[in-house]
Design brief:
- By secondary structure, the chain is an alpha/beta fold.
- The protein is built from twelve helices and 20 strands.
- A ten-stranded mixed sheet has the order 9-7-5-2-10-1-11-16-19-20, sandwiched between helices. The protein has a three-stranded antiparallel sheet with strand order 12-14-13, with helices on one face. Strands 15-17-18 form a three-stranded mixed sheet.
- It binds inosinic acid.
């Protein structure tokens, strides 16, 4: 008799507006993973990983590449800027990381063209979303309008040129375009062709062999094209379901979905932000938490943790676990108490509508050396319990600093 199998697959999403410290968590989990797959977005995201005191920022290549035995995949849900990829490959070569037979890129992922980057800036002038201006939106627009160049098209440069000509006749309505695409397409082909394959086959083979496969989302749930704060969103599927469409994996093959959240909230770009704060306190939180965009260096907007928003993210993604990062930042902002947005009052009574509620902080107690839950102050533990109780999802891990080892494991993620 044939039975359904259970696979070793985990999707990691950001449960908020991005920048939750996903890079570090994925890096931590990647040391155990056989394969790390990125399934959406492009060079708009930036993942910062510190190893041996060195800072690495990855925008396209999965940060799992730093672990020598981990296979890294960039799946078809992504949009690729070949120049950014070229730089990342060069950096990896400089630090002695071998990518041969370890990095695979989908031939159905789309190519970001120079006109996409120009159009992104132009569209920002017309309606300010606060995009990263990396050409993401226009590249996905071309994909949906069926005039996008897939990386596999670069195997036939004439074909790619013909598609570019069609796309350019569209974009010429918005921007000045008087240059050819030949040199750019040739350069793109040189960079990407050695890595191209049908990645969905590769990923499904690994899943069938019960390999540990980690799917890494870019951006965040509230920036998702379908479920985020539209129109202030990115142009891809940043939710867990995006792993299925973006990588070609059936929903029944996903075992767990982990949502990462900071212990407070940040947002870059425009759009609603219910718990936002400003003034001196915001500046302090921004400084202490180093809340500046890793790609654009823009100061991030900051605010308190929003539990109803987190609960929404838990439902949309089907979260089976939470990971809470940057608890240490709340020690260092110099406040005895701070706020959360909740649907409940301090006694657990249900409110008519969510409200900000004062919670006991842990003053300036140093969390950075904590290795287990027992090392955390009582009020930090209470804070974590409050999150679990309201969101109704168990916390699997907490993070108390930017280094790889400043992680408190609570439950085993792979089991
Ligand atoms: P785009 O993805 O560049 O089109 O930008 C759309 C929105 O998503 C803007 O508000 C950006 O600031 C935001 N965004 C894009 N990538 C990231 C990210 O990696 N972290 C946080 N916000 C992002």
């Amino acid at each position: 008799m044939i039975r359904n199998k259970i696979y070793n697959t985990i999707v990691i999403v950001d449960a908020s507006f991005g920048d939750s410290g996903k890079g570090k968590i994925v890096d931590y989990l990647a040391s155990d993973a056989d394969m790390v797959v990125k399934y959406n977005g492009g060079p708009n995201s930036g993942r910062t990983v510190y190893t041996n005191g060195k800072k690495h920022i990855f925008r396209l290549i999965p940060s799992g590449i730093l672990h020598p035995s981990t296979i890294c995949v960039m799946a078809q849900g992504m949009v690729i800027d070949p120049l950014v990829l070229k730089n990342e490959l060069q950096t990896l070569a400089e630090i002695g990381i071998n990518v041969k037979d370890r990095l695979f890129i989908s031939d159905a992922a789309h190519l970001i063209m120079p006109y996409h980057i120009l159009a992104d800036s132009k569209q920002e002038e017309q309606a300010a979303i606060g995009t990263t201006k990396k050409g993401i939106g226009p590249a996905y627009e071309d994909k949906v309008a069926r005039r996008g160049i897939r990386l596999g098209d670069l195997r036939n440069l004439q074909k790619a040129e013909n598609i570019a000509a069609r796309a350019k006749s569209f974009w010429r309505n918005f921007i000045d375009l008087d240059y050819g695409s030949e040199a750019y397409l040739t350069m793109s082909a040189d960079v990407v062709l050695p890595f191209l394959t049908d990645t969905s086959i590769l990923i499904n083979q690994a899943i069938n062999l019960k390999k540990k496969v980690l799917f890494e989302s870019a951006q965040g749930t509230l920036l998702d094209i379908d479920h985020g704060t539209y129109p202030y969103v990115t142009s891809s599927s940043a939710v867990a379901g995006g792993a299925c469409t973006g990588a070609g994996v059936g929903p029944t093959r996903i075992k767990k979905v982990m949502g990462i959240t900071k212990a407070y909230t940040t947002r870059v770009g425009a759009g609603p932000f219910d718990t936002e704060i400003d003034g001196i306190l915001a500046e302090r939180l921004r400084e202490v938490g180093n809340e500046y965009g890793s790609v654009t260096k823009r100061p991030r907007r900051v605010g308190w943790l929003d539990l109803p928003a987190l609960k929404y993210a838990a439902e949309i993604n089907g979260l089976t676990g939470l990971i809470v990062t940057k608890l240490d930042t709340l020690s260092n902002i110099g406040m005895k108490n701070f706020y959360i947005r909740s649907e409940y009052d301090a006694d657990g009574g249900k409110l008519d509508s969510p409200r900000l509620r004062l919670v006991d902080g842990w003053d300036q107690q140093d969390l950075s050396q904590a290795k287990t839950l027992a090392d955390l102050p009582d009020n930090t533990l209470r804070y974590l319990e409050m999150i679990e109780d309201e969101v109704e999802v168990p916390i699997y891990m907490a993070s108390v600093g930017s280094d790889r080892n400043q992680i408190i494991p609570i439950h085993n993620i792979w089991e």
